[in-house]
Amino acid sequence: MEETELDKNWHYAHWTFRTGTRTFEGVEMMISNMISNFKEVTSHSCGSFSTTKDLVARNAISDIAIVMSYSLLEGFFHEEYEFYVKNEKRKKPKELSALINTLLHDRQVSLKEWRKRRKVIDLVRVLRNAVVHSNGIIESDFDKEKCEELLGEDVFESSDHYPRLSLSRSLHLVREFKGIADEYAEAVFIRPNNALQRTSR
Prior knowledge:
By secondary structure, this protein is mainly alpha-helical. The protein is 70% helix and 0% strand. The longest helix has 34 residues, at 51-84.
């Protein structure tokens, strides 16, 4: 018997709800392990403190968190768009926050504090593009005060043009973006139409 559209949607929503953010978990485990072993990793072989290794490790953890958080969230919602919306011949939004917004309306679900979270996503996009395309350098016209307000810390404390998240904020960013995908996936899976489909099986 051929699957109906409701069947396909239910199976896809169930799979996304159960497994859709596992890659975030991998990045979270990696960063968490690096932080737990930070002193050992950044010390000289004799055990003494290494300024160079400390700087390199802090920059790397921050860059990984920024790039991977944004890229994984972008990939997650790209897949959602491809499955639910693409065949409706809509023009795909270029910005990630707009893409998420499109899916929220299409799936008729909402996210807590979406307005603030959307601003954080847009900010991280700028930081991510700087890491990927400009070796992490931010231009002078960047709103640093707004950045500090949204991220909860001064990421320009160590450099005027090279933003760097603290170790704890790096880990939190991965969890924060994973939380967006998790909350969306749960909302889509348990929405009324899917719930009815599940009980009728």
